[in-house]
Amino acid sequence: MYFGINAGFGDSLTPEIESLTTLGFTEVRQDLQYLTTPEIIHQRLQELTKSRLRPLWIMRPEQLKYATAKNRVELFNEPNISNPRDTVTWPISPETYANLWNTVAIPAVARGVIVFAGSISNLDRRSLAWLQTAWSRMSVKPTHVSIHRYAGSTGGTTKPHKGFANRDEEISALRDIVGNAIIAVTEFGYHNGRRTRWGLPLCAYSPWDVRTLLTEEWAFWSEHRVESAYLYQLNDGPSNKPIDRFGIRNINQQWKPGATAHWNVLI
User: Fold this and answer.
1) How much is the pTM?
2) Of 6, 71, 162, 201, which sees the most CB atoms within 10 A?
């Protein structure tokens, strides 16, 4: 299994190459969906070519024309749920997603681009049903699939989503849909922001709690032999909200304990 990190929303990753490789990350996932200038897109597609970081780019269908052979690309990010940056076209129906796969992604695959399908938001029943519907309508089945997996506010690393007896059953349900396709877990993570249960506040995980959870999570994905797993995410945001506390580096550019959570995981 390869160790990946989510880093960047279209900005240059060149300043991060040395620190991420020193930490032992081998993959980096970058969102290019909202870049509109072809020159900038080409720059992002080229800047990591001589580094030891293998990039995975999130693209919209109209951007796939810029990808070349052996580029690794995800078609959209979490198309099955609402997107605060695009409330007009998101969520994307599974039928629409399958049609875009058939008309845009298949030609890209034919010229050698490695296109990951899915990128569903979680391994819960609703997200898996979305993927199953999309999958059934794809005229050529994807060879690579991406999924996200989050535990929720109190789930830890062992509690399965509703309707599953354990997390192994989640993986089995995924495999029932995608067969032998290569799986990448392109987002997983735990935050040290305030948690809630039944609407009531709970104490936040400490940075060391998060490190323990991340180590257990890395081990889980390694045991299930996914191709790669990408931690969400590199940097904290400016607020104290949970979404801004997933980073392995805080707002003062200091590394948290979770930055090395993968070091003792056997692969």
Assistant:
1) 0.96
2) 6
